[in-house]
Amino acid sequence: MVRRLAPVLTTAASLALALVAAPAAGADTGEAAAARALTYEATARYHLHANAVEAGYVPDEYCVANRAGPGALGYPHFNHALDNSLDPAKPAALFYEDDGHGGKRLVGVQWLVYDRDQDTATDDDRPTLFDTPFQGPQRGNFPGQPVHYALHLWLWKENPLGVFETYNPTVTCLPGTTRPKPPT
After folding, report:
1. Distance between CA 131 and CA 147 in Å, rounded?
2. I want to staple 131 with a disulfide (CB 3.0 to 4.6 A). Which of 32, 66, 160, 180 is the partner?
3. By C-alpha distance, which of 9, 13, 7, 89 is closest to 55?
4. Positive or negative CA dihedral for 175, 176, 180, 184?
5. pTM of the model
6. What is the pLDDT of residues 54-75, one digit of tens each?
7. Residues with Cβ < 8 Å from 117, sequence gap 6 or more?
8. Which of 150, 48, 171 is nearest to 92 (CA)?
């Protein structure tokens, strides 16, 4: 088993180093690039889905599709102990897609920070990471989730709309894998 995992880990590490060493035109530099390098390093081990679960990332059984257009987030895995983290090595969520072989492939990460005054009309506490402001404030996505800011990073799968966009049009949800709409 270890021998089969070694090429996967080596490939993931090589990809991370290549992406960090040769940023695309217009990519972040300096402190933001160093912070992204930390994210690559910290999340590479989560290519093995079991490592993410062991680290406290709880899988959602449903794939999250963009209801307003193309694309999806994939399957979110939240570690709510990391909510409010601005540490590039500690995202609150990981996003996976189906790998076509019954498993999951890591595609992106997210940070989630609660709004101080819980008022969607104010944004004087908007956080930034990678020299990029978080989106929001927005209402919770489920009962009990506070008003919050979010920053998505498509670290492990290219997003043609941009590395910090919420949805990725190259991520799809298989039929029957999205959360059923609540009855009206």
Report:
1. 22
2. 32
3. 89
4. positive
5. 0.83
6. 999 999 999 999 989 889 999 9
7. 125
8. 150
CB distance 168 to 174 below 8 Å: no
Compute the chain's Rg from CA coordinates. Answer: 16
3-state secondary structure at position 15: helix
- DSSP annotation of 1 reads -
- Condensed to tens digits (0 to 9), the pLDDT of residues 76-97 reads 999 999 999 999 999 999 999 9
DSSP annotation string for 123-161 = -TT--EETTEEPEEEE--SSTTPPSEEEEEE--SS--TT
Q: What is the signed CA dihedral for 8, 12, 14, 18, rounded to 10 degrees? A: 150
Q: Structure tokens of 132?
A: 């990029």
> Contact 84/127 with Cβ under 8 angstroms?
no
